[in-house]
Amino acid sequence: MNELHKLLSVLDEFRRRLVRIALVVVPLFGFFLTFEVRWGRPSFLPWVVPYPWPSPFYNVSAQVFELMRTDMLPSGVTLLNVGVGESVVIQMEIGLLLSIAVGMPWIVHEVGAFLMPAMRRSERALLKNVGIPATVLFFVGFAVAWIWITPFTFLLLFKYVGAMGLAPTISAESFLEFALLYTLAFGIVFELPVFIYSLTRIGLIAGGFWRKHWRAAVMGCLIFGMIITPDNSGITMLMIAAPMAVLYFGGMLAAERHQKRVDRAKLLTIPGGAA
């Protein structure tokens, strides 16, 4: 009965945390689907500021989609609405993504509060140390893909389309899926140094392991770039594999540095080790 009581208590805490997350994410989702952001200058301010305005059709999700189309697609490419409700689904997908992104600090807080009692002190310290770097690296990777990688990939792909004499068109759903997959995947890729450092920090993998197997890691970066890219030119594959390799070596150096600190601390605890 005691074990059952503990299980029910954990499930109740999990439900409570989910409800608290939903109380933030759901209103954000509703806002992104029913309001647009306009710019204006109030009479009491000397500068232009953004403000929400009710707009169930041209909302924040639609504005983000329009920004993606402007930033990522080459000029002359036509987006097509293939299905009857495709535009609605697109707005809902973007709205959900925005809701999760904006509410991520609260989501991380609630998830951390749920997991914290089950963590050891070293694991809690690790989460505090890597939380900010992991967030920064994700948004840097996302921005690099948005500004550079994804637009170049679309440009390269439509070069093939033009060479075959085909009309440069793409469905709105296909465009959104590809653009989000690329940008989100690149944001996750930028977490590689944090992943490497964390495995060494918790003692699961020794710091010297990463240098010993760097050739296999570079090959893995090339294979990953080949799988995720839609063309066979090799250019986009290298555009993904090269930053991955750099990130791997950065994580390797951080892991080795931590391993040296651990080894030095162990040496000092051995009688006569500091001599």
What does this structure look like?
This protein has 275 residues and is mainly α. The chain has a domain at 2-190. 73% of the residues lie in helices and 7% in strands. The chain contains ten helices and four strands; from the N terminus they run αββαβαααβααααα. The strands form two sheets. The chain has a two-stranded antiparallel ribbon with strand order 1-2.
How would you sum up this structure in a few lines?
The chain is mostly helical and 275 residues long. The chain has helices spanning 2-34, 60-72, 86-102, 104-115, 121-163, 172-189, 192-201, 208-212, 214-228, 235-269; strands at 35-40, 49-54, 78-80, 169-171. Helix content is 73%, strand content 7%.
Average pLDDT confidence is 86
Task: List SSEs in N-to-C order.
Answer: HEEHEHHHEHHHHH
> What's the Cα radius of gyration?
24 Å
- Strand composition percent: 5-15%
Number of strands: 4
Low-pLDDT parts are none
Number of helices: 10
Structural category: mainly alpha
**Which strands sit side by side, in order, in the main sheet?**
1-2
Largest sheet: 2 strands, antiparallel
Measured as a percent range, the helix fraction is over 70%
Determine the N-to-C terminus distance: 56 Å
Query: Any idea what the shape is?
Result: globular
Fold topology:
Elements: H1 2-34, E1 35-40, E2 49-54, H2 60-72, E3 78-80, H3 86-102, H4 104-115, H5 121-163, E4 169-171, H6 172-189, H7 192-201, H8 208-212, H9 214-228, H10 235-269
Parallel strand pairs: 3-4
Antiparallel strand pairs: 1-2
Helix pairs in contact: 1-3, 1-4, 2-3, 5-6, 7-10, 9-10
